[in-house]
Design a protein that fits this description.
By secondary structure, this protein is α+β, with helices and mostly antiparallel strands. It contains seven helices and 16 strands. It has helices at residues 16-37, 45-51, 62-77, 87-99, 105-114, 142-156, 248-261; strands at residues 5-10, 58-59, 120-123, 126-129, 161-166, 169-174, 182-187, 195-201, 204-210, 215-218, 221-224, 227-228, 233-234, 240-245, 274-280, 285-289. Strand 10 (215-218) and strand 11 form a beta hairpin. Helix 1 packs antiparallel against helix 6 (142-156). The longest helix has 22 residues, at 16-37. Bound molecules: adenosine monophosphate and magnesium ion. Magnesium ion (MG) binds at residues 140, 207, 209, 252, 255-256. Adenosine monophosphate binds at residues 82-84, 86, 90, 137, 139-140, 209, 225-227, 229, 252, 255-256, 259-260.
């Protein structure tokens, strides 16, 4: 997935060997899912879906179907703000950054037509595209799903606690090494090393999206790697969005979605989710924290 991963297992000293085994199994599970979901891997299921012609049903694993179903459900819930089918637009903006040239309005409109939610239909155990050029990018959801599956591996091993972190998105369960809740740092969007806050998290996932993590520069302007599928333009509202949710897949999805929707999107957050956003600049920073967001710890 082009990023680093951190796994912690909490166990009694006499269970150390079993804990080590659980960590190895969790790593193997993440690698296995990467082989199905990553569009950077040529033979992956998602790459095969992207290369598929129109009208030909493609059999897919239950794991791939789960991520696709959740993503399309989120498309509906967010009014199209979360849209895994905007891959050609993502590539158009990436190309613009490489050439240091803004895409034209015409190119944006044309590219938007190439791939849309409506071009994909999930049938029992497979997916059919109605247009060959339609393609998906799971960059906003796959890490979260992999975190959930790795957490499941750790839980099945009977550990007293654990943490799985992929590229800064994470989920914890049970006891931390100190015995209580887990301290989770939220990075500042404005400095590479700074920490905005450390929150106390119990049995939940914490995912952060934002322009600080990855952005590109075109003609001296910074552009987010998150695209607003409704306009075809990079999202520009919020430098950082952190979502806390029961599962990492849903936290990952919603952090990306709120980055597109802005603070107005916070009303759409599902029951039991909470969020903290940052807006403004390093000198004039503000933001919104919704009820239920974990408390800060010192
Ligand atoms: P995240 O870091 O989880 O916010 O995911 C950002 C990644 O999701 C981007 O690098 C793209 O691969 C993909 N992406 C960009 N815009 C969207 C969008 N509007 N909906 C879904 N995925 C997106
Ligand atoms: Mg995300």
């Amino acid at each position: 997935m082009g990023t680093s991963c951190r796994i912690l297992a909490v166990a009694d000293p006499e269970d150390e060997a079993a804990a080590q085994g659980a960590v190895s199994a969790a790593v193997a599970e993440i690698r296995r899912l990467e082989g199905l979901l990553s569009t950077w891997i040529d033979g992956s299921e998602m790459s095969r879906l992207n290369a598929a012609p129109a009208g030909l049903p493609l059999e897919m694993s239950e794991e791939s179907l789960t991520v696709l179903r959740a993503s399309f459900e989120a498309y509906r819930e967010t009014g199209g703000a979360f849209d895994i089918t905007c891959k050609p637009l993502i590539e158009l903006w990436r190309e613009g950054a490489k050439e240091n040239e803004l895409p034209t309005t015409g190119a944006i409109e044309y590219t938007r037509e190439l791939s849309q939610r409506e071009h994909f239909e999930i049938r029992d155990s497979g997916v059919v595209k109605s247009q060959a050029s339609a393609r998906v990018d799971l960059g906003g959801v796959a890490k979260g799903y992999a975190i959930d599956r790795a957490i499941e591996v750790l839980q099945d091993a009977g550990l007293s606690g654990g943490l799985v972190d992929i590229g800064g998105d994470l989920r914890v369960f049970g006891k931390s090494p100190e015995g209580g809740s887990w301290p989770v740092q939220i990075r500042s969007p404005f400095t590479s090393e700074g920490v905005l806050a450390t929150i106390a998290v119990t049995d939940a996932a914490v995912c952060t999206s934002g322009s600080y993590a990855r952005f590109s520069e075109i003609e001296g302007q910074r552009y987010s790697h998150i695209i607003d599928p409704r306009t075809g333009m990079p999202a520009d509202g919020l430098p950082s969005v952190t979502v806390v949710a029961p599962t990492a897949m849903r936290a990952d999805i919603w952090a990306t979605a709120i980055s597109v929707l802005g603070n107005e999107g916070l009303e759409k957050l599902p029951e039991g989710f909470s969020a903290r956003t940052v807006q403004g600049s390093a000198l004039r920073m503000s933001g919104v924290t919704t009820p239920g967001f974990p408390p800060e710890r010192n």
